[in-house]
Amino acid sequence: MPKEVLGIIPARANSKRLPKKNLRMLCGKPLLQWSIEASLDSRYITRTVVTSDGEDILRLSESLGSEIIRRPAELATDTAGSLDVIRHA
Is 9 exposed, middle or buried (0-12, 13-18, 19+ CB in 10 A)? Predict the structure, then answer.
């Protein structure tokens, strides 16, 4: 049986240092799009999931072919740990 490899991309809506950074353009694409495309194009990753609390981020992610998980508010804070976000996903 082939192995399943889950690619999890955490993309919080509100960055303190650079607001909406995941949606900011970089070389003609939103920053988040680069990560999603790399994951979807990987020959090792079988599923790509973006976890976010931002509706704009979730819409973009889904339109690019990623699965999405709506992240609860308690996992979208500055103090939320990455491991907790991964467990939720």
Answer: buried
Nearest to 33 by CA among 9, 6, 7, 1: 9
Predicted model pTM: 0.92
How crowded is the C-beta side of 65, counted as CA atoms within 13 Å? 12
Instruction: For residue range 16-37, list pLDDT tens digits in order.
Output: 888 899 999 999 999 999 999 9
Among residues 19, 21, 16, 20, which one has the least CA distance to residue 79? 16
Residues 13 and 57 sit within 8 Å (Cβ to Cβ): yes
- Chain segment 35-81, per-residue pLDDT in tens: 999 999 999 999 999 999 999 999 999 999 999 999 999 999 888 99
A 10 A CB-CB count for 50 gives 27
